């Protein structure tokens, strides 16, 4: 095991002890952090995370990245790649006066582009408070054989956001309104009239932040899946694009979520991304054109697993998905024999963990999984195993041994193969905001 490196460090003593916040600086710091994602693109490691104004899963949350071109030895300064629209960016009790991003999940596409999916919420307290979501408002509608977003006035009348952001009324006539950017800025003629993702008047903002107010027409309060793209190994990123309408189903309700960690470039070139629906099952979406369009098997909309999940591919092309158990116990498993289009439920593996996201990668026949090993989120390990076969086909994983990552708190994590010699792990080693990177020699693990 090589020396650990601090990649993201909170600077607010409400959420992290002073003994740790003292290590926060301009290269790694913000108020709070959660939910790491880590991939390798070209020769570059890319670390992404929620950059939060509090320890809660709502409020003013943007997305941040750091990159390393030398295998994790040194890292670029932190860069915020997306800030949500907000009426208030300063934290206060029960604050949710902002839209927010959450749960970045990255993958490398066949053409070398880096794809990042993240959840985006209008101003509300979801996903934890479903009473603040709009269960009866349809988020998209078909017009001229194409799906478009809907927004609503205070009386519940819908309007369609058409080409170039031009807003049509319920009879599909053009209005004076137009939505001018991904952040939801609404104009009436030449006058700015607010933001479709916000509720009320402008509040208090942090230094250098921009606050605004709610528009008279609003997007339904639910979650959306936004996609970002980088063509230069994470140095710069596109504006996000809403891709939710490409795979959303009525049974998903108001929240189809991104599974934290990474997606997967399948051996046939498709980009496979793990999603899930709260209180239902996992969702598998894939792209065959480097992330420009996304697909979901409507005849099997769910993937026979539960909670946040991560996926890996065996040398014979069988894909395995490791889910999240509801309490301490064996990890649920799902299996795909057609590159992630259809899934069958596998026998739970004998990898024991509490209810927590885990990360999984494979190198040849060997499988590596990072997770807490305690009865709660504590005592991080990397468990090592090999693909298990029956009648010549992969049917699961036989776990052999585990390597300690840390003692004490261990939350979400993400594994990556750095090169032929090393793997790396990015993980939460203290509640809300202390995110470490370590690397291990592969030969020492197997």
What would the average pLDDT be, to the nearest integer? 94
Q: Could you give the distance between the termini?
A: 13 Å
What are the segments in which pLDDT stays under 50 over at least 5 consecutive residues? Answer: none
Strand content: over 45%
Spatial strand order of the main sheet: 9-10-11-12-13-14-15
**Category from helices, strands and their pairing:** mainly beta
Number of DSSP helices?
2
Radius of gyration from the alpha-carbon trace, in angstroms: 22 Å
Biggest sheet descriptor: 7 strands, antiparallel
Helix content range of the residues, please? Answer: under 10%
| Mass-distribution shape | globular
- Please count the beta strands (DSSP E, at least 2 residues each): 33
For this entry, give a set of tags:
single chain, 446 residues, mainly beta, 7-stranded antiparallel sheet, 2 helices, 33 strands, globular
What can you tell me about this protein's structure?
The protein has helices at 18-21, 442-445, and strands spanning 5-10, 29-30, 32-41, 44-52, 61-68, 79-82, 100-108, 114-121, 140-143, 146-152, 158-161, 166-168, 174-179, 185-188, 191-195, 224-230, 241-242, 256-258, 261-262, 264-265, 271-277, 282-287, 310-313, 319-322, 329-336, 344-353, 359-363, 366-372, 380-390, 393-404, 413-417, 422-430, 434-441. With 446 residues, it is mostly beta strands. The strands form seven sheets. A seven-stranded antiparallel β-sheet has the order 9-10-11-12-13-14-15, with no helix packed on it. A five-stranded mixed β-sheet has the order 2-1-33-32-31. Strands 17-16-8-7-19 form a five-stranded mixed β-sheet, with no helix packed on it. A hairpin with a 5-residue loop joins strand 7 and strand 8. The longest helix has 4 residues, at 18-21. It starts with a strand and ends with a helix.
């Amino acid at each position: 095991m090589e020396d650990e490196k601090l990649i993201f460090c909170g600077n607010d003593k409400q959420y992290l002890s002073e003994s740790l916040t003292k290590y926060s600086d301009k290269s790694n710091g913000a108020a709070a952090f959660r939910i790491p994602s880590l991939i390798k693109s070209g020769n570059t490691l890319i670390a992404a995370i929620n950059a939060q104004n509090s320890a809660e899963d709502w409020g003013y949350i943007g997305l941040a990245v750091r990159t390393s071109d030398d295998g994790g030895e040194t890292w670029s300064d932190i860069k915020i790649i997306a800030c949500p629209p907000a009426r208030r960016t300063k934290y206060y009790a029960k604050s949710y006066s902002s839209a927010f991003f959450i749960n970045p999940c990255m993958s490398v596409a066949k053409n070398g582009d880096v794809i990042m999916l993240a959840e985006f919420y209008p101003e509300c307290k979801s996903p934890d408070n479903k009473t603040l979501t709009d269960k009866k408002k349809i988020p998209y509608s078909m017009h001229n054989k194409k799906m478009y977003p809907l927004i609503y006035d205070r009386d519940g009348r819908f309007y369609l956001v058409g080409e170039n952001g031009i807003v049509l009324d319920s009879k599909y006539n053009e209005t004076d309104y137009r939505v001018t950017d991904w952040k939801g800025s609404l104009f009436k003629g030449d006058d700015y009239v607010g933001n479709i993702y916000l509720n009320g008047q402008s509040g208090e903002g942090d230094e250098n932040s921009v606050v605004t107010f709610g528009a008279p027409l609003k997007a339904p309060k639910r979650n959306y899946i936004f996609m970002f793209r980088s063509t230069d190994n994470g140095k710069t990123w596109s504006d996000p694009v809403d891709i939710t309408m490409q795979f959303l189903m009525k049974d998903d309700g108001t929240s189809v979520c991104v599974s934290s960690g990474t997606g997967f470039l399948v051996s046939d070139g498709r980009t496979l991304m793990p999603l899930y629906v709260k209180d239902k099952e996992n969702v598998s979406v894939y792209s065959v054109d480097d992330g420009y369009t996304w697909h979901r098997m409507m005849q099997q909309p769910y993937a026979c697993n539960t909670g946040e999940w991560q996926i890996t591919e065996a040398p014979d092309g069988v894909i395995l998905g490791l889910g999240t158990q509801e309490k301490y116990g064996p990890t649920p498993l799902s299996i795909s024999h057609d590159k992630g289009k259809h899934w069958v439920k596998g026998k739970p593996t004998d990898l024991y963990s509490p209810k927590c996201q885990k990360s999984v990668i494979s190198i040849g026949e060997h499988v590596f999984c990072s997770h807490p090993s305690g009865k709660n989120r504590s005592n991080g390990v990397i468990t090592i195993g090999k693909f298990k076969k029956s009648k010549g086909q992969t049917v699961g994983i036989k776990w052999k041994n585990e390597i300690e990552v840390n003692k004490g708190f261990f939350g979400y994590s993400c594994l990556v193969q750095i090169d032929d010699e090393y793997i790396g792990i990015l993980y939460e080693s203290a509640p809300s905001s202390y995110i470490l990177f370590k690397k291990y020699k592969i030969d020492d693990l197997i």
